[in-house]
Design a protein that fits this description.
The chain is an alpha/beta fold and 209 residues long. The protein has a single domain, classed as Alpha-Beta Barrel (TIM Barrel). It contains seven helices and nine strands; from the N terminus they run H-E-E-E-H-E-H-E-E-H-E-H-E-H-E-H. The protein has a nine-stranded mixed β-sheet. The relative contact order is 0.15. The model has no long low-confidence stretch (mean pLDDT 93). Its EC number is 4.3.99.3. Catalyzes the complex heterocyclic radical-mediated conversion of 6-carboxy-5,6,7,8-tetrahydropterin (CPH4) to 7-carboxy-7-deazaguanine (CDG), a step common to the biosynthetic pathways of all 7-deazapurine-containing compounds. It comes from Gaetbulibacter aestuarii.
Length: 209
């Protein structure tokens, strides 16, 4: 990447675009909603069970002008989901401003490990043990989605729930490869602790992206 392009990336004028696609939101509060996904490259949180590890290395994904990303997005849906990788590694101010100028609803899926930039209609916080969220993201999250891989994740989930705002919706979601084992455990836990809800990766059951 040349110096001029790097400056544009640092400003959020260009972003490492891994993929963009129109599909059905499969998880959390907005599951079942048609949405256009913008997946950005770059992540150093390093979850061993991540199902998009090809997103980790931002250098593999071409810097794309934010205005071009927005022009594509507005053709498909009024709900836009920015995900990754970890999108907050990049300055989201320009991208979200451009999307909001188009009267689009703008959502983010983030680990919260980096400072919050951008203007969001919905923040899905999915915290990871290796790199915890910032205090600002805890305060502003609309939903907390904790991935359950083993029994210690229930402890971690409660620890994270104690840090978010009182209106944040709480979800537990089985890690896909462990779903047969952990779904019964999640069901049992949620029935005993009904402040939580179950989130499933319904798009995988529907066999869509």
């Amino acid at each position: 990447m040349n110096k001029a392009m790097q400056i544009q990336v640092d400003k959020g004028e260009m972003l490492p675009l891994m993929e963009e696609f129109y599909t059905i939101q499969g998880e959390g509060y907005y599951k079942g909603t048609a949405a256009y996904f913008i997946r950005l490259g770059g992540c150093d949180v390093g979850c061993h069970w991540c199902d998009v590890k090809e997103s980790w290395n931002a250098d593999l994904h071409p810097p794309t002008a934010a205005k071009d990303i927005v022009e594509n997005a507005e053709k498909y849906s009024d709900t836009i989901v920015v995900t990754g990788g970890e999108p907050l590694m990049w300055d989201m101010t320009l991208l979200t401003n451009l999307l909001k100028e188009k009267q689009l609803k703008v959502h983010i899926e983030t680990s919260g490990a980096y400072p919050l930039t951008g203007t969001w209609d919905w923040i899905c916080l999915s915290p990871k043990k290796l790199k915890l969220p910032t205090e600002e993201v805890y305060a502003k999250a609309n939903e907390l989605k904790v991935i359950i891989y083993n029994k210690d994740d229930f402890r971690f989930a409660e620890e994270q729930a104690a840090k978010v705002n009182k209106d944040c919706i709480l979800y537990m979601q089985p890690e896909w490869s462990k779903r047969d084992k952990v779904i019964p455990e999640i069901v049992d836990y949620v029935m005993k602790h009904p402040k939580w809800k179950v989130s499933l990766q319904t798009h995988k059951y529907l066999n869509i992206p």
